[in-house]
Amino acid sequence: MNLKNQSSTIKSIILLSFSLILMSACSKQKTQITQAGITFCSEGSPASFNPQLDTSSTTADASSHQVYDRLLEFNTENGEIEPGLASSWLVSNDSLTYTFQLRKGVSFHDTSYFTPTRNFNADDVVFSIDRWRVNSHPYHDISGGSYPYFQSLGLKSTIKNVDRINGYRVEISLYKPDSSFLANLATDFSVILSAEYAINLLEKGSPSNLDVLPIGTGPYKFVSYRKDQFIRYQRHHDYFLNTTGPENLVFDITPKSSLRVAKLITGECDAVAFPSQNDLEIIREREDLTLLEKPGLNVGFWAFNTSKPPFDNPKVRRALALAIDKTSLLETVYLGQATRAKSLVPSASWAHQSNMQDIGYNPVIARKLLDEAGISSGFTMNIWAMPVQRAYNPNAMKMAQLMSTYLAEVGVTVNIVSYDWTRFRENLTAGMHDSVLIGWSADNGDPDNFYRPLLTCAAIPSGTNRARWCNPEYDDLIESALKTEDSNARRIFYHRANQIIFREIPLVPIAHAFQYQAVNNQIEGITINPFGGIRFDDVVRKQ
Amino acid sequence: MNNLLLRYINLMVVTITILIIISFSLGYLFPGDTLTNISGIVPQSEEQRIALEAAFKLDRSIFVQFWYYLDNLVSGDWGVSFSSQVSLIDEISIAFPATLELITYALLISIFIGIPIGFIGGIWHHKPFDFGAVTFSVVSYSFPVFWLALIFITIFCLQLGYLPLSGRVNFLYDIPHNSGFILWDILVADSPNKKDAFADALRHLILPTASIALVTTAIFIRFTRRSIMDEMQKGYIDAAKSRGFTTKQIFFKHGLRNSLLPIIPLMALQISTLMTNAMVVETIFSWPGIGNWLIQAIYQRDYPAIRIGMLVVSIFVVTFTISIEFISRAFDPARDKFERGTV
Fold this sequence. Notes:
The complex is a heterodimer.
Chain A: H1 3-26, H2 32-36, E1 37-42, H3 57-63, E2 72-74, E3 81-83, E4 86-91, E5 97-102, H4 122-133, H5 148-153, E6 159-166, E7 169-174, H6 181-185, H7 195-204, E8 220-226, E9 230-235, E10 248-253, H8 257-266, E11 271-273, H9 280-285, E12 289-295, E13 298-304, H10 314-323, H11 326-333, E14 338-340, H12 363-372, E15 379-385, H13 396-409, E16 412-417, H14 421-429, E17 435-441, H15 448-455, H16 459-462, H17 472-483, H18 487-504, E18 507-520, E19 523-524, E20 540-541
Parallel strand pairs in A: 1-10, 1-11, 15-16, 15-17
Antiparallel strand pairs in A: 2-3, 4-5, 5-7, 6-7, 8-9, 9-10, 11-18, 12-18, 13-17, 13-18, 14-18, 19-20
Helix pairs in contact in A: 10-12, 15-17, 17-18
Chain B: H1 2-29, H2 34-39, H3 46-55, H4 62-75, H5 88-123, H6 128-142, H7 145-159, H8 182-188, H9 194-232, H10 235-242, H11 247-268, H12 271-284, H13 290-299, H14 303-331
C-alpha cells in the first residue's frame, strides 16, 4: 500500500463514520416499537408497588392507576364517585353498613411470576382491606406494617367489619357514620390486591414480593423495574374496561425537572411530571408540546390568629382582607399560574360554590373599618411567611412583602416573620403568630378534607387550624354534612359554612394553584387527575 | 523473562492489596455503623445484628475479619446496596460494562482517527495539514470534557433535535442483559425489532462517545506525530536514504514499526484518562455506567456501594495499566526501564 492509497483509506473511513452518524441522526421518525409505546418521565423511584404502604404521589403514580383498580373511582372531571370494581353499592339507612356488588369477569394479571386461576371476587376485597385493618392479619406486618393514609384518617377505628356475603358481594360495617367513607375508598391508596397471589406467595415463603412484584386488575401489567432507571409495563389485554392505551408503557425515572423538560423537547419523553415554574414558558412557546394545567385540589390562604386581639374582632379581619389586592398577588407570586380563591374548596371539587361572594380590594372602606374598630394609624402586626415552596404558595416571602406595601397604605405596619420549617410549624401550633401565609393540599375530592382540618375547633390542638378559630355553628354544619349521604344536601351545608367564613373571615382564601403536566402533541388522552395519580388507560399516540 | 513477570505480578499484588486494605478500612472510617457500612443492611433486631455480625465475622479479630473480607470479595459476596438493597455485584455487573462499552468505542474512534492524522502530520510536518492537525489537537485537548458534553447537548439535542440526550437505548426496547455491551446485546437478542433498536442505541452512543473520544484523539495525534518525527530524524533513516531507498520504502519498512512500538503502551495508558472522562460524561448523559452509579451512591451516602465501586474501578485501572506495561516490556526488550513513565 502506498501513501496515497493509505490517505484515501483514511478519507473513506472518515467519510464512512460521518455518514453513519448522519444516517442514524436523521432517523428520528418513530419506529414500530416507539410508535406502540409511551414513555412518561416521572420524578422519582417509587418506594414500593403498593400505594397502601406510602402516601407519596410518586408511589401512587407508579402503581395505583396502572397496576390496580379500586372499588370506586373519582370522575376526574367533577370528582363524583363512580363505580370501579364495585358495579353498585348500597348504604343502609343508618349509614353504618355499606354493601358492594362486585363486577364479574374481572381478570388479574397473568405475568411471568404469577398465573391467576380465578377472576376477581369478594375474597380479594376482604384481603385488601383486612391487610391494613386487622393487626393479626398474616400480611399486616409484611413490608413494614405501616399504612399511613388509613392511619391518618383513623379508618381502623371507623371500620367495624368487612364481610364476604357471597362471591360477588361484600358488606362493610362501620362504628359511626362517615360520609367521606366512599371517597376514601376511591383514593389512590385503596387499591384491590389479589388474595390468591398473596396466599401463593405465603406458601412460597416470599410474602414481601406482594408489594414488589405486583399483581392487580389494572390496565397495565408490571414487567420490570430498576431503581432510578425505569419501570416497564405492558398492556393488560383482558382489562375489564375498553381502553385504548398503548401496548407498552415506560416510566423513565428522571429526578431533575430541567432534564425531564429537555427530554420532552428531544422526544425521549412523551409526557413529564411536575415541570418546574421556570420551564413553563419554554413549554408554552414550543408548538410541538402542550402544557396541561388544571386548578389543583389545594388552597393558599392568609389566616389570622383569632385568639389574639385585635384579630378576634371580625371587623378588623375584614378591614385587613379589604386592604390587599388579591389580583396582583396572583400575578406576581403565582405568575398567573393559579385561580383566585373565594372559598376553601377549589373548582375541582363537587362542593365548590361558583357563585360565592368575594372580598374585593377597597383600601378606603378598610381604613374606615379600622377606625370603627379603634385601630389607629401606625398599628403594627406581623405576617408569618412559610419558608418552603408549595404549589399553593410558591413564594410566601414575596407575597408577604407585597402585602406589607398594601397594608402600609391603610396605615398598618407589617413585620415579616419566618423560621425554619419545623420551628415555624411548632410556633404556629403554639399560636405565636398574628397572621400567617400558608395553605393546604387535599388527598381526595371530598370537601370534608378541607373544611374539617382547616377550621374546626378540634383542629386547633392538632395544629391544622392556623386561624385558631372555633365556631360552634360552623362545627355543627361540618358534622351534619359528614353524617349526610346525599351530596346535594351536603353541598348546602358546605355553602352555609362558606357564608360563615365569609362573614367571620378567620382566613382570607387567596389562590388555588394549578397542577401542571407537559405532554408531546402526538399524545392524546392524558389529563391531569386532581384526585391523585396519573392515568394512561385511554392514552393514544396520533399516527 | 520470568524475572520480569515475577516483578510485575509482585507490583500488582502489592498495589491491589493496598487498595483492598483501604476499602476494608473505609468500612470503619465512614460515619455510621460499621456493620451497615460493610453489609449494607440495617439490622432490625438484636438477633439479626448478632447473626449479621457472625456472618461478616465482626465478632472476631481484625485480621480474621480482613481474611473473610478477602474471601467474600473473591467469592463475589460483596454485600448489598444500602439504598436499593440489591446485591452490589449485580448492580456493578450491570453498570461497569456500560462504562467499558463507552470507553472501548471512544478508544477505537481515537485510534482510527488519531493515529492516521498523527502519521500524516508527522511525515509532512510543518505543512498545512500538519498545522491543521496540531491546531485541532490543541483546541480539542483544551476543552473540558463536561463543557463539551453540555455544548453537544445544547446543539444536537435541544437546538437541532437530532440526537437523544440520555440513556443507552430507548426504554421501550426491552433488551435482555447479556454481555452488558448494549450493541452486542441487541445483536444477540431474539427480537424482531433488532434493527431499530440498534439504530437507536447508536444514536444514544454518538454524543457521549464523541465527547470523551475528542480529548483522547487529540492526545493520540500528538503522540503519533511526535514519534514519527523523532523516528524519521534518526541516523539509520539517513543511512538508509544514503543507500538510495525511497522515503516510502524507509517509512513502511522501518519508520512505521519503530515509531508505533513505543507509543502503543502510552496509548493503552490513556485508559485512566478515558475512565475519568467517561465517569464525568456518564452523569451528564445519564448513561447508566459505573460513574453515574457511584455519583448516585455518593448522593445517597450509600457507603457499601462507594466502597466496592471505588475498589472495582481502581483494580480495573491498576490491572489494565500494569498488564500493558508488562506486555510492552516483554515484547520490546530494547526499551530501557528508565524510559518508563515518559508520557
